[in-house]
Specification:
Blueprint (H helix, E strand, L loop, with lengths): L4 E4 L3 H10 L4 E3 L5 H6 L7 E4 L8 E3 L5 E4 L4 H5 L2 H6 L1 H8 L4 H6 L2 H5 L6 H4 L41 H7 L3 E6 L2 E6 H4 L18 E7 L8 E6 L10 E10 L2 E10 L6 E2 L1 H7 L6 H11 L11 H19 L12
Parallel strand pairs: 1-3, 2-3
Antiparallel strand pairs: 4-5, 5-8, 6-7, 6-8, 9-10, 10-11, 11-12
């Protein structure tokens, strides 16, 4: 690990002033991803600005009936928060599907949004990687790409976004609150992460001089018909090969509102409005779910080792929608797939 300086921010304004003064500085809170990247020499900031003591660790109800989640709320606290478990069990389930208990205790809500890809070649500094070193090439396209993307890829990058929590937040239409040198702004969760295009080094639309302050959830939480189904190599601890957050609003066997987001398949949590529209007003049947899966995967493309993900994703979508419709969400405590 390279040498670096360390400082602690006293409030949000101080954090913004410190990051503005040093272009190669990084914020650190839980550090569960950044420290790994520094050890692998992927990230080498000149300074770490510790924001872990900022007053951003509350979960509060909003006037509109939703929740405002501070950026420094630990993942474990968020997953087990009574209001989250009651109103947004999809979010709780997705968080508990990710990482280990120890990591969830350290990881923060804002930091979870900023996790970087787990592509093997991104971590291997001896190989070309456009995400790590723009213009150097993509080793994954013709390499061992079993964990890589099948949707939204580009010639420059086929990496996937690793977060489980973000998949649920995308399905729930969350919003990201941001503070920066030009004031505060809000980005819809669907627009927060980016597809790789020809600038895969940028994972999000957050400016380097900005800071996440909170996540806001709308009032609609889909607390009756939902599931987070994650397929991975090891049930105990692994990133998703394919995951699906499914949430439905039902009326006498007819779907009135559908949300569907996928993880492990693209550079960002993957939502397809056309597939959700295809579910609305339809009866709960296997054929309905299969048609929605076909829409989601219409433009899916495999790269050899990961081609199996296309059929896997189709089956996981159908299974997840079935679980959601039946009100039998996937358990994250017993390590079997229902």
């Amino acid at each position: 690990m390279n040498n670096f300086q360390y400082s602690r921010a006293t409030d949000v304004a101080d954090a913004l002033n410190q990051i503005a003064a040093d272009a190669s500085a990084k914020f650190i809170a839980g550090g569960t991803n950044l420290v790994d990247l520094m050890k692998y020499d992927v990230e080498h900031p000149s300074r770490l600005i510790d924001i872990s003591h900022l007053p951003l660790a509350k979960v509060e109800e909003t006037t509109g009936g939703g929740l405002r989640i501070g950026a420094l709320v630990p993942n474990s606290d968020l997953a087990w928060h009574p209001l989250v478990m009651e109103r947004y069990p999809l979010l709780s389930s997705a968080i508990l599907a990710g990482a280990s208990g120890q990591l969830r205790n350290m990881a923060s809500t804002g930091g979870n949004l900023l996790q970087r890809t787990r592509c093997f070649y991104f971590y291997d500094v001896a190989t070309p990687c456009n995400k790590r070193e723009p213009g150097s090439g993509c080793s994954a396209k013709d390499g061992i790409n079993r964990i890589n993307a099948i949707l939204g890829t580009s010639d420059a990058c086929i990496a996937t976004h690793p977060s489980d929590m973000c998949v649920a937040l995308a399905a729930l239409d969350a919003k990201v609150h941001i503070a920066g040198p030009n004031g505060e702004r809000i980005i819809a969760m669907a627009d927060f992460h980016r597809l790789p295009g020809d600038t895969p080094q940028r994972d999000t639309n957050l400016d380097p001089k900005e800071i996440i302050t909170a996540i806001e959830l709308p009032a609609q939480g889909f607390n009756k018909h939902y599931t987070y189904l994650k397929i991975r190599d090891r049930l105990s601890y692994a990133f998703a090969l394919v995951s699906v957050a499914a949430a439905l609003k039902m009326d006498n066997g007819t779907i009135r509102d559908a949300r569907l987001a996928l993880g492990g398949v693209a550079h960002k949590p993957w939502r397809n409005p056309e597939a959700e529209a295809a579910l609305n007003g339809q009866p709960v049947t296997p054929d309905t779910f299969a048609r929605a899966a076909d829409v989601v995967l219409r433009e899916a493309k495999g790269f050899g080792h990961n081609t199996f993900k296309i059929d896997l994703a189709r089956r996981v979508i159908v299974r997840a929608l079935t679980q959601a419709a039946n009100g039998t969400p996937q358990s994250q405590s017993d390590k079997t797939i229902a």
